[in-house]
Amino acid sequence: MKTATSAIRIDFANCMTERVGEHGLDPVLFDVDSTISRSVRSITEKLNASRGSGWERWRDLHRDPMRSDHLSQVRDAVDACNSAFPDGVENLVVLGIGGSALGNIALQGALRSPVHNLLPAGSRKGPRLFVLDNVDPVAFGEVMTFCDAPTSMGGGGGLEKTVFNVISKSGETAETAAQFMIIRDMLKARFGDAHQKHIVAVTDPAKGTMRTICDANGYRTLPVPEGVGGRFSVLSPVGLFSAAMCGIDIEALLDGAADMDESTCNPELLKNPAALLAVILVEFGMSKGKTNHVMMPYANQLYLLADWFRQLWAESLGKRTDSVQGLDHVGFTPIKALGATDQHSQVQLYRDGPNDKVFCLVEVEQFARDVPIPTGLGVEAIQYLEGSDLGTLLNRERRATEYALVESQRPNFTLTFPEVNERTVGQFLYLWEMVTAYAGRLLGIDAYDQPAVETGKQATFGLMGRAGYENWSMRVERTLQKLQWTV
Prior knowledge:
Layout: E1 9-11, H1 17-20, H2 35-50, H3 66-84, E2 91-95, H4 102-111, E3 128-132, H5 137-148, E4 162-167, H6 174-191, E5 199-203, H7 209-217, E6 220-223, H8 237-245, H9 250-263, H10 273-287, E7 292-297, H11 303-317, E8 319-320, E9 329-330, E10 333-336, H12 347-352, E11 357-364, H13 390-407, E12 412-417, H14 422-443, H15 451-463, H16 470-479
Parallel strand pairs: 2-3, 2-4, 4-5, 5-6, 7-10, 7-11, 11-12
Antiparallel strand pairs: 1-12, 8-9
């Protein structure tokens, strides 16, 4: 049962005029009868009515029947993989890009040891995990070489102990398609028809190029649910399969989403954390010119959640429109930083540079482990550290940065994890998905499309010689004539 100490919390006092002067928001904005509060009530009513339809099926991933179906299918796939490799799966390689990769990376970073891949098989939960989210040939080639090398030579134990999880709804995303073609060729050359057990695809359950390939070759598949876009798919089999393979409690992840769902359906602005954050960030962006939104976790394990947030925020809200205050373009630039590391590289800009940013500081109250700082060194200048611990130091650093930002009238809010576990991570993921849904409605844009991405895809098709896209190649070369300086 959810308790106050098990839920993530938000402190937004540093966003108000009382703290940061003219750079803050007027408390009147949050009055129960304010214009924005009435707007939130209307938006909440519309969101509650539209959930589970169109591109909002992601809102039901933690609810039956999708929840039970996906948990059952994912567990069956994990059991099948483990049964097919009696000596154990040593390496799980995810092939995907964007929403097909960032959620997997974020879950692994938040919920598994930072040295997970370095641990021997008996000391880690599940296989090593590699997420190949780019077609960089060096990175791809080195991971393949490692996986194929015997453990006696410092490798991953060979392809015979490696499973590839290809994630593509259509199968036509150039980057993932190229990766898949390479590994399929490698596996067929090594194992013949037996290569099938090395591939688990997450794809459209009924149609598309990847579905056709999987059906023809007998590859095990999991569904990309209809109406669930890539950047909203982390709590579907897209993110759950690799998480479950690596020992993450996927049921608790969904429980966390359910916790947050209850709060984010509340029509009252100050009782709805998603609506509250959306109003704060949209108001700062549209009324105060603070269009750069920094997420700065004070915990290494949460840093990759900021990567996941960047795609969600940028791709959902960066849109061309003429429906908001006469503007042609709306959206905000998400920026990630790491506390306390970036206090030594970014905070100079954040305090003395342009006041065009809002900061989300993320803290952890209780770390999974701590490291005491010993006494007895006898050096006066650093004696104040003796007898404390690294967790306390990191959280005091966050508090000090919060104070420094307020001193410079830089608005910020703090999101607190009581502890980092599957349930609180599930809360975080669902919270920001709902913040995005509210922000899209407040901006008057479609948060679920990404029309500007398509031009680059089509140009790539043309440059790579895909039939029917020849004119794109000519357009690219004509537009990008070189003007260069050469040594």
